[in-house]
Write a structure and sequence with these properties.
This protein has one domain. The chain is about 85% helix and about 0% strand. With about 190 residues, it is an all-alpha fold. Helix 1 packs across helix 6, helix 2 runs antiparallel to helix 4 and helix 6 packs antiparallel against helix 7.
Length: about 190
Amino acid sequence: MIRRGFSYGLLSTRRRAHALLLPILTTATGAFLVVQVFSLTGSVKKQATTLGNKDEIFRATLLIAVVVLLVGVVEVAVCSTRTINQRTREIGLLGATGVPRSPVVSALMVEPLVAAAAGAVVGSVLAITVDSMLAAIGASSTSPQLGPTALGTTLAIAISIASAAITSILPSWRAASRPPIHSLSHGG
């Protein structure tokens, strides 16, 4: 039954794709920065050594990138909450026709997870592409390192998806737990 909830959620997400552009773009920006910081770890630490405090400078740079990534995830959560509020009658109709809570929650969770994953993947791929192009044309004095780049990409995607799931589960659960008559008559 949960699988049907996911299928329904994918159809709904495709229908509302235009509303996901801002959360995807914001998450992509954060992922881009996280991957950039990790891929240029060696050069950042090398330059920071000349200033002293290389570890503090690297941690500050990484913290800024993660904050930007989390801002993107918050945008995904806001979009998810807005979606749930717009779909209260639909959720009430599902409940009134006997659809259990878990498939409704799974359907509501698809949109934020897809937006977070898509944004993180787009941002990571763009960062890797930009790094490679700059190194290829000689516009960058350092070339990206494979290990740190892979770590940054993995972290950006994992943090985005996990944060989207954590911030969206409670509103989805609450919406699916409302009595159907309340959602149908009051719309929220």
